[in-house]
Amino acid sequence: MMSIAPDRKLTSRGQERRDELVRYAVTRFAERGYHPTSVAEIVDGIGVGKGVFYWYFSSKEDLLREILREGLLRIRRHQQAAIRNEPNPLRRIENGVRASLEWLSDNTEVMRLVDFAWTEDTFASDLRRGRAISIEDTAKHLRDAMDQGLIAPGDAVTMATAIRGITEEVSRLHADTDADPSTIPADDVVRMVLTGIAG
Amino acid sequence: MMSIAPDRKLTSRGQERRDELVRYAVTRFAERGYHPTSVAEIVDGIGVGKGVFYWYFSSKEDLLREILREGLLRIRRHQQAAIRNEPNPLRRIENGVRASLEWLSDNTEVMRLVDFAWTEDTFASDLRRGRAISIEDTAKHLRDAMDQGLIAPGDAVTMATAIRGITEEVSRLHADTDADPSTIPADDVVRMVLTGIAG
Amino acid sequence: MMSIAPDRKLTSRGQERRDELVRYAVTRFAERGYHPTSVAEIVDGIGVGKGVFYWYFSSKEDLLREILREGLLRIRRHQQAAIRNEPNPLRRIENGVRASLEWLSDNTEVMRLVDFAWTEDTFASDLRRGRAISIEDTAKHLRDAMDQGLIAPGDAVTMATAIRGITEEVSRLHADTDADPSTIPADDVVRMVLTGIAG
Amino acid sequence: MMSIAPDRKLTSRGQERRDELVRYAVTRFAERGYHPTSVAEIVDGIGVGKGVFYWYFSSKEDLLREILREGLLRIRRHQQAAIRNEPNPLRRIENGVRASLEWLSDNTEVMRLVDFAWTEDTFASDLRRGRAISIEDTAKHLRDAMDQGLIAPGDAVTMATAIRGITEEVSRLHADTDADPSTIPADDVVRMVLTGIAG
DNA sequence: AATGAATGAGACTTCATTCAT
DNA sequence: TATGAATGAAGTCTCATTCAT
Known about the structure:
4 copies of one chain form a homotetramer.
Chain A lengths: L11 H21 L6 H8 L3 H7 L3 H24 L5 H18 L1 H10 L3 H27 L8 H22 L8 H13 L1
The structure holds a DNA duplex.
């Protein structure tokens, strides 16, 4: 009931505890699913009392939201760092795709949690806006490329969605079959994306 | 815990009841999520007692498995009907994509349930085999196309995965933003797929 | 979360169960207090599972509200039955006081629960209206008596409040010291009330 | 569980802190109820850590007992100061009633806490003795008055209880409907009490 | 086939209290 | 004295499932 102030100052020990909870929960949620994983399982797993959980999170739902929020923030940052200062729109798309593949293959657990969150209305609404922004980001590069005559004209939003779909599905398959992030077939994906949008 | 014989003969009224349960459950599961939807909610929703549910399904989990099984069976049939007798491998791929887009836009709820099922290990194992088969189906057409010199050589499995990703992500976005299945930008998708794999 | 329809039809067995729960809870609540009495204690006390409680009541709070509602309804009915058809306003007051003393000494447990409910804002608001009505009922008789010159004029609401206070406090003391309802000093109370208001 | 020595000397700053805790707790307990008010809420409300609470009180229960003890002590003192040196027993009763009304209207929150305490056996036993003494005090004056022929003979204990009931109920109603202590209808109450006992 | 009452494990959460710092 | 992190028993409530009718 008493919600936790989102900007509450934590001691460094407190911050570590919180991170430990998040880390462990992400693993468990991804492994067995959000609902099948109980708060008891999480606190037992790191050997603390139940109260600790509620000292750092106001509810199990709040924990997932935090995980999603932080995860989506990080992937966005990762993408933008890869794109910054790249003048060629096709290169920006390529770099974005590579950054996504990298990040997703390093954070397969978060990806799985996002996939779950899409399946419950409680969480999905939080994700819609993020998706719209992400697709619009890519669509902008596509329109730039069309304007510059680099690719044939077409429906930028559908293309951006397709790119997103390619990136995520390849990451999903890879996550399920191969633990090594370095073996992601990024070049193949990039080639397909770039020829696919060439038109 | 007595399990229900999967091939048990049902009277036509019984079959209708069962379908009614499935239909209503699919809607609710897709809307609010599998776990947040209780068996009580389902039976209340169609105005029957709890016993009815357990007459037709041995458990809530069993119901979801049935939904998934029937759903995946149907989409596979739909795709194969669209491909049958088509000698050109690229046309087979195109027809398969179009069939998937059609089916998914007509069955967005099942799609959402499949997405959920991927997030829990209990169900995910059932899906892995299906995905492998589905990707291998497409990969076979791709290899045929490569052999016939219709497209450049490349990693057929990654390409097939990409095609699957495009198809599903476009369907997801469309399901969330546009209720009308006829407005799926199938031509755009097909163009991107075909040029994307052209190499 | 799913609240119980207040007009839900119960089988006669169901009604008995519900009554059993109410009866036992009233006893326990009165004995040890509302909060110190857990739902587990109640269901264990009558030897049923926890779910039974929530089949009949949507929450522990709901149970208390029901107890209060039914209790206050009954005392009101009891009073009004005692007053009906009595033309003399002083007799109406006397009969009302006697009826209250009777009912309270037969229902000391409910009285204690009402006293508790006054101490928490969640419940108190429900009680204010009831008190206002009850006092106004008595005040009306007092004004009638003043109009008819039976008693000296005065502040009818304060008088009615005083009568209420006398009745309840005598009942409280009696409940704590003497289990036998027949020994309530009703005549003494009535005499004090009647001379007190005479002015 | 180390209990706090009840007569422990506190620095003046310590005494202030303790008073601050008591004051704030009384307000919250009266407003929302004893159980719904957590220790965390109290210490947060005055901006100190949890340790502070347990420095001054050995438990939440101990805090309530202290509040009750101090409150009942004060009202008794207030009444006795009002009665001292008054030779006429009826005047003593009148003065006692006026003193009670005054004190209760100035300390409505404590009154509510006492009402709560009556509803849990843990606390009620502490209150029984106090009530018995208080009623016996008044009964003594009544017997004096009877002996002196000032009022008709009657059951002094019931009368004293009635007086207590009047006083408290008028205070309760006033506390809930009118914040201004000066508007208590003390004269009306006194008149009713005096004529009521006259017989 | 169907009902709806019953079960009870187990989920989430609260909170009085303790304790290292 | 004081803090705030930690404890863990205990509380309320949910819900898949069973079963007498």
